[in-house]
Design goal:
The protein has 231 residues and is mainly alpha-helical. It has eight helices and no strands. The radius of gyration is 22 Å and the shape is globular. It starts with 7 loop residues before the first helix and ends with a helix.
Length: 231
């Protein structure tokens, strides 16, 4: 670990922001690549795998050689910077637990399985991840259902502000959460916002209300999943 517990929410927001941005532009890229069908004898789906997959493969190979496993092996940092990182992480670990906590004990596992809070946390994460991935995958379908007359390109364009809003909200919440060192209230508020959004999508009578519901769902989309993971 390069960061302490007090810095995780903001750093994790960067990761989820990348996922949201990918969701925002992925549909547009797929739509554009569809026009490459037959180019140089390759079907459109093959071009899509090449264009979207090749950068990921190349970055993955570079990451194997360039990314450090620990502060001590971070070649891109000066000796003083590496020493500072080690001291910060060591101090954070010392504050977070006692030495015995670094060893897995059978009694601890049994105690965790008997703790209702562990199961409640599992249920929370299941619901948060279910919403996160369902929204990310089916948002174009949801928006298309608002008005079947809209073109595919127009629908894909309407997904962009929804994902952009979710990124802005989570980055702001992550910063405030780290500054306050509090997670629960933001997860609760994010859940309430998403509940309101789902209600608007199901019960709304107009296109405007239902589309606004997409933004309410997006408000809690990454907030709930992100704050739970860094808790």
């Amino acid at each position: 670990m390069f960061y302490t517990r007090r810095e995780l929410a903001v750093r994790f927001s960067y990761l989820l922001a990348g996922a949201a941005i990918a969701g925002a532009v992925g549909g547009l890229v797929a739509y554009g690549v569809g026009y490459m069908d037959g180019l140089r004898g390759l079907r459109g789906w093959r071009w899509l795998l090449i264009i979207e997959g090749l950068p990921a493969v190349c970055l993955g190979i570079l990451g194997w050689f360039l990314l450090a496993n620990s502060p001590e092996s971070a070649w891109y940092l000066s000796p003083s910077e590496r020493q500072l990182l080690v001291l910060r992480v060591t101090r954070d670990e010392r504050e977070a637990s006692v030495p015995s906590a670094k060893v897995l004990h059978q009694a601890d596992v049994v105690a965790a399985l008997k703790d209702w809070k562990v199961w409640a946390f599992c249920a929370l994460n299941f619901g948060a991840d279910l919403q996160l991935f369902s929204y990310s995958i089916f948002l174009p379908t949801i928006i298309q259902a608002l008005n079947p007359a809209w073109s595919t390109l127009y629908v894909q364009a309407l997904t962009v502000p929804c994902f952009a809003w979710s990124v802005i909200v989570f980055c702001c919440v992550a910063y405030i959460s780290d500054a306050m060192q509090h997670r629960a209230v933001f997860g609760i508020l994010g859940s309430l916002a998403s509940i309101v959004g789902h209600t608007m999508l199901m019960a709304g009578q107009s296109v405007a209300v239902r589309f606004a519901g997409c933004f309410f769902v997006a408000t809690g989309l990454f907030v709930v999943a992100g704050t739970a993971l860094v808790w």
